[in-house]
Amino acid sequence: MPAVANAVVIIAVVAYVLVRQFQARQLSNNTRRLLLVPAVLAFLALRDPHLLDPKHQALSVAFLIVGVVLEIGLGAVWGFTTRIWQGEDGRIWSKGTRASFFAWIGMMIVRIALYAAAASFGIAQGQSGLLLALAALLLVRGAVVTWRAREFAPAYGSPARAL
């Protein structure tokens, strides 16, 4: 995929996620939705022949792995900063908090530092590594929020009723 198309995909996904993050929205039980965007991003990243720098393959792989692992950790942090609650109708809702905003700032700082470190070694990094890290970030954040929302799940499949 050309670099311009990758950049457009990255900007579109980040904008979409950021806008939705700070709006209260109902959590879905559909696990396909949880997996769809990360799967598409990972597919786009892994099929790009420029994912790794051919002149520095070992270091390029190391930076790619470090980037993905860092984004996994940051995705978990982001998931734990999301507010989750149960509405009066029994539906489960989520919304990003101020801490979520600072988690995003931290994610950007980490990503910039990683690019700077790779550049200091002369490693060419394309957008494919960012696509793969973004896929990991979104997958982990969704998994953490879903895991946290389980505390609102009714026992034995139906909500308790007041007598």
Q: Beta-strand level of the residues, as a percent range? A: 5-15%
Q: Average pLDDT across residues?
A: 84
Instruction: Tell me the series of helices and strands, N- to C-terminal.
Output: HEHHEEHH
Number of strands: 3
Poorly predicted runs:
none
Number of helices: 5
Q: Based on helices, strands and strand pairing, what is the structural class?
A: mainly alpha
Alpha carbon gap, first and last residue: 60 Å
Largest sheet: 3 strands, antiparallel
The general outline is elongated
- How many whole angstroms does the radius of gyration measure? 18 Å
Count of discrete structural domains: 1
Strand order in space, largest sheet: 1-3-2
Could you estimate the helical fraction of the residues in percent? 55-70%
Q: Any overview of this molecule?
A:
The chain has 163 residues and is mainly alpha-helical. The protein has one domain (3-154). The protein has helices spanning 3-21, 31-46, 57-81, 98-120, 127-149; strands at residues 25-26, 83-86, 92-95. A 3-stranded antiparallel beta sheet has the order 1-3-2, with helices on one face. Strand 2 and strand 3 form a beta hairpin. Helix 2 (31-46) packs antiparallel against helix 5 (127-149), helix 3 (57-81) packs antiparallel against helix 4 and helix 3 packs parallel to helix 5 (127-149). It is elongated and about 60 Å long. The mean pLDDT is 84.
